[in-house]
Structures are given as structure tokens and as C-alpha cells.
Automatic annotation (TrEMBL):
Gene Ontology biological-process entries: salicylic acid biosynthetic process
Chorismate-utilising enzyme C-terminal domain location: 5-98
Pfam family, one: Chorismate_bind
InterPro entries: ADC_synthase, Chorismate_C
Domain of life (superkingdom): Bacteria
GO molecular function, one term: isochorismate synthase activity
Protein's name according to its UniProt entry: Chorismate-binding protein
Source organism of the structure: Rhodomicrobium udaipurense
């Protein structure tokens, strides 16, 4: 994937984005399906966050829970991977737990 010695960790992050876990596979048809089903913009959800030094080394993670914090509002994002054998109630509970983590970090009581 990154055989060129000039390839940086950021280049690799871009090559792997979006991951099948948050988009599906094959990527293009999965993205089209998501666009036709979801009625909202994912904004920064499932984007990658991290750092890279001057030599191109770095560390990146996928934002599986995040928040858009504005002066008077907070919009939370979280999701769960749906795969064969997934149980909808378990996935909903996982998303609730992720929201709880973000709400706690922001100082909100549920």
C-alpha cells in the first residue's frame, strides 16, 4: 500500500479511509447506499484524528465517537458496526454507551 519511502503515515491514513467498519465494502457502493439511507451529514464522525512528525511517522485513529461543540449547542456522533449476526438491540446499547462517554466528558448528566 505504501511502498514508496516518501509515503507518510498521513498518506496511509488517507489510503485506508473510510474503513470498511464504518463505511462497508466495496467502498463506493457502500458510500452510495449510506448516502441514500441516512438523512444527516456524518460531519467528522468516522474521520481520522492523530499526529504526524516531520519525518512522516505518526499515529492515527478513527473517531468512532465525537462531538461538534458550538457556543450554544452540542451535536454528538456515535455508531456501531453492523455485520452478519449483529443484534439490533445490542448495537443500540453500544451506541448509547458511546454517547454516555462523550456526555460524561462534556460534563452533562444523563
Amino acid at each position: 500500500m505504501c511502498r514508496d519511502p516518501r509515503c507518510s503515515s498521513l498518506d496511509l491514513a488517507f489510503a485506508l479511509h473510510p474503513t470498511p467498519a464504518v463505511c462497508g465494502y466495496p467502498t463506493e457502493s457502500a458510500m452510495n447506499a449510506i448516502s441514500s439511507i441516512e438523512s444527516f451529514d456524518r460531519e467528522l464522525y468516522a474521520g481520522f484524528v492523530g499526529w504526524m512528525d516531520a519525518s512522516g511517522d505518526g499515529e492515527w485513529a478513527v473517531a468512532l465517537r465525537c462531538a461538534n461543540v458550538a457556543r450554544q449547542s452540542v451535536k454528538l456522533f456515535a455508531g456501531a458496526g453492523i455485520v452478519a449476526g449483529s443484534r439490533p438491540l445490542d448495537e443500540a446499547a453500544e451506541i448509547e454507551a458511546k454517547f454516555g462517554t462523550v456526555l460524561g466528558a462534556l460534563g452533562f448528566v444523563r
